[in-house]
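Lab manual, section 2.4: Encoding a predicted structure.

Procedure: take the sequence of the chain (176 residues), apply the prediction step described in section 2.3, and record the output as structure tokens. A sample record is shown.
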Amino acid sequence: MNKKTGEISQVGKANEDPDRILRTNRNGEVKYKKNGEAKVAIDDISKGILEDGLNLQKNDGTFEVNGEGEPSLEDFNKFISEFSDYIGKEIAGVRLGEKNSTDVKRIKTYRYRNSTRTRSETPTSWFSQFGDHLKGHFHTHPYSDQTPSEEYDIPLRKRYPSLPFFIIAGGHEKKF
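Recorded output:
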């Protein structure tokens, strides 16, 4: 991953091993240990989350979860939490599913280009445009803090009282 541009590129051949994000320098070149092994930033990423060319900094992301051959919601939470820690910024999005079901089938993340360590964005239109498919809102807190912000989180939660809100930190979610 090139932290400057946000671009994630596949290195090496596809295989069945868990995916990982390698540490890079400011130019996006992989960093190596003295023994020649690549330095790993995020390890054990479930298959189906990363893809060549993925760029969550500049683009919204869509992730299928909880289906056959797909990562679970917990797998996604682990990844997005570790990714948020690595880039040092919050990431936000929504959880989507089928009408008349509470099951989450898809995650949509909003690009983190303007996010900071303590603030992320989600278009408010997302709270209405997905209708009955909307199952919840989430955002990450880098570095394991799951305390809702009085300035941003609590007012947003009050504007949408029937929508579940989650903070993902340390690989786990907490409803608030």
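Check your result against the sample. The longest helix spans residues 73-87.
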